[in-house]
Amino acid sequence: MLQSNIPDSPYPRVVIVGAGFAGINLVKTLHNKPFQVVLLDRNNFHTFQPLLYQVATAGLEPSSIAFPIRGIFRRKNKFIYRLAEVEDVSPDTHTLNTSIGPIRYDYLVIATGSVSNFFGNKNFETYGSGMKSLYEAVGIRNYGLKNIEQALLLKDRAAQEKALTIVIAGGGPTGVELAGALAEFRKTIFPQDYPELSADLMHIYLIEGAPRLLANMSEQASAQTHKFLAEMGVKIYLQTLVKDYDGEVVYLGNGEQIPTQSFIWSAGVKGNALPGLREEQIKGGRIEVDTFNLVKGCSNVYAIGDVALMTDNDHPKGYPMLAQVAIQQGKNLGANLVRRQNKEPLRPFSYRDKGTMATIGRNKAVTDIGKLHLHGFIAWVMWGVVHLMFLMGFRNKLVVFINWMYSYFTYDKGTRILLKRHI
Amino acid sequence: MLQSNIPDSPYPRVVIVGAGFAGINLVKTLHNKPFQVVLLDRNNFHTFQPLLYQVATAGLEPSSIAFPIRGIFRRKNKFIYRLAEVEDVSPDTHTLNTSIGPIRYDYLVIATGSVSNFFGNKNFETYGSGMKSLYEAVGIRNYGLKNIEQALLLKDRAAQEKALTIVIAGGGPTGVELAGALAEFRKTIFPQDYPELSADLMHIYLIEGAPRLLANMSEQASAQTHKFLAEMGVKIYLQTLVKDYDGEVVYLGNGEQIPTQSFIWSAGVKGNALPGLREEQIKGGRIEVDTFNLVKGCSNVYAIGDVALMTDNDHPKGYPMLAQVAIQQGKNLGANLVRRQNKEPLRPFSYRDKGTMATIGRNKAVTDIGKLHLHGFIAWVMWGVVHLMFLMGFRNKLVVFINWMYSYFTYDKGTRILLKRHI
């Protein structure tokens, strides 16, 4: 019989569900404060999601962007981690039901992030892949490498093109960065590794419903990104919807059909709310919170990061689902929990926009910092520095830096091993 | 319909099965020679087997010791690689039957290596794990990390010990290096990552049937290894057989029973001969060859490396299954194939023993070079230098070196992520 085995403590117990940017930063803020901190996650590692696309395109190893949770918080007092899946929450009894039994809380913090939103189309999920987890990224890598090996065994040009073509739905940061990395793979790795195949057989489609790519960034960044990707040979469709995918053909809203074995969905995410909350507390999977991240109608349940829906005059639809928002909400909530215990006045969340950036390829990136819009080499270096800064752990920073330098100077990628033989 | 799609060539076709040390070195030797070289492997990468135990103990990432085959031989003329499983060989028709269809050969080279020999005990295979492939090593890592998380959820001390205890059958290099790495994990990582558990609950058993560990090395090396491991708290049983394992308890020949969830088999390997050869050509899974590695009774089929059984006065039971033998046989056969085409006299294989070594832990290794026996720090540095030298690819050497340095100075390991949630 498995039990959570969480020891009793004289301190109030804060249970945090999810070890993403929000959860991790909350734990850090509560270090050495008078709380018993219990962190639950169904993985034993924190994933650095902004670099998932490099794992999917064989540029980085999974462990370079994953950091073991116990490694982050080693030697921390009053900190407890459990590998567990949360089943539901029972706010009335202050209890969380999990795969390792019920867990009582004094404060509950839901930091469960977001999941792919397929808008009810089961086919996208069944025949395609999302790009939200390390599992999906490794799966895309293995599947892609397998498809190229398979294309070598086909005689018919149309069949080869179908095996090599990749269709990405969604022109947000994930779709853009993935399309760029694939175009670089096609240009540098493909001709050297597969001299028997023509790189012209591999088509990369990026399908976006809005009138421009990177709709959350500036017009300048969108235009530059579009130019970069088009130059790299990515076929970009704007104001175009993906209607369906049956595992063989992608059907577009404009009537066009694209035969392909590879369909990646990055056209929408939704909040990953926990079961057990009341229906009126949840909108689009996100949990409605006040400016202190307290869940509406609850006294001791908080939500932070992507899963939290906090609205104000500037953000009538809620804050964007960004790492920076999650990090800042985690830190603010940590400080507020201490204030609440001390019966001091709380401080509402106030977001400090540090800018947004996306990388398209070698020496090609776009950055918005307030009114400043940069692109090209300087933006690309900034992107690299910022991502290394936020990557957890010295070893990871060093290994990622070396992989980047190695790829930059050799035009090679070291990690294209096909780990699952039979998919 | 998948076809091998191997183009016609004016040159004689050498088909090589297996991209281990033997196969890879043969391909290299045949570069720019008048042959069409076709390499088949069921993985798209070469595995550096000597460091598998570091993957199993979370010291290195899989891709650090795996090198994509297409990366090794990029830009090589007349070289063709196919991802394929070989079903059998038909020597009479000079044809190999594979998962991608039949492949004709002028010369066939079998370099399929060795597999775990469970000596007919299905239980060892079903409930335990071998340590011969990257899959098994990653599986051991994930399973071990999962067991520790599970031990936290148990109340009963005996149940916790059973979850944490690891029994290794076989005191050869694999068993010794694995036991040493696990003992270091228990000493350095365990207390920091799992302060709720006592490291005393984790027992490491090393069970060997012979009167000493590392029976293929010198008496001095065996004695020193025994001393190192005993000091590190490994429970060593000599002249003891493992009779059975039912998934719950390991039954030893001396009547002792060890309750454990983790049983690793490194007590025997056998040749991985291809089906289709005649029974009298095979002994213990190895294929009998003459001193030119030609399979007895065949005119154009060769076997090299672990799978080849070459006997002489000094080696009445065949050469040991070592990387050095495989490398040297691959190179010698390559040169002989050229000579055979040129109708020049062939040179028989002659083995140059460059010494053997094993590492037990931090600053602890043993080395035999002829009559010279070294141990301790100097042997450990030599071990590291030699392994880095033989590891394929600059990126891999650099990443492994950094991981080693990082672990050495921080007593930390970076890659203990549990990638499969549900095993």
UniProtKB/TrEMBL annotation, chains A, B:
Entry keyword Repressor: no
Pfam families on file: NDH2_C, Pyr_redox_2
Signal peptide: none
Domain FAD/NAD(P)-binding: 13-330
External alternative NADH-ubiquinone oxidoreductase-like C-terminal domain ranges (all copies): 354-409
Assigned EC number: 1.6.5.9
Gene3D superfamilies: 3.50.50.100
Keyword Methyltransferase: no
SUPFAM superfamilies in alphabetical order: FAD/NAD(P)-binding domain (SSF51905)
The reaction(s) this protein catalyses: a quinone + NADH + H(+) = a quinol + NAD(+)
Family, similarity comment: Belongs to the NADH dehydrogenase family.
Family matches, as PANTHER family: EXTERNAL NADH-UBIQUINONE OXIDOREDUCTASE 1, MITOCHONDRIAL-RELATED, NADH DEHYDROGENASE
UniProt name for this protein: NADH:ubiquinone reductase (non-electrogenic)
Species: Compostibacter hankyongensis
Organism lineage: Bacteria, Pseudomonadati, Bacteroidota, Chitinophagia, Chitinophagales
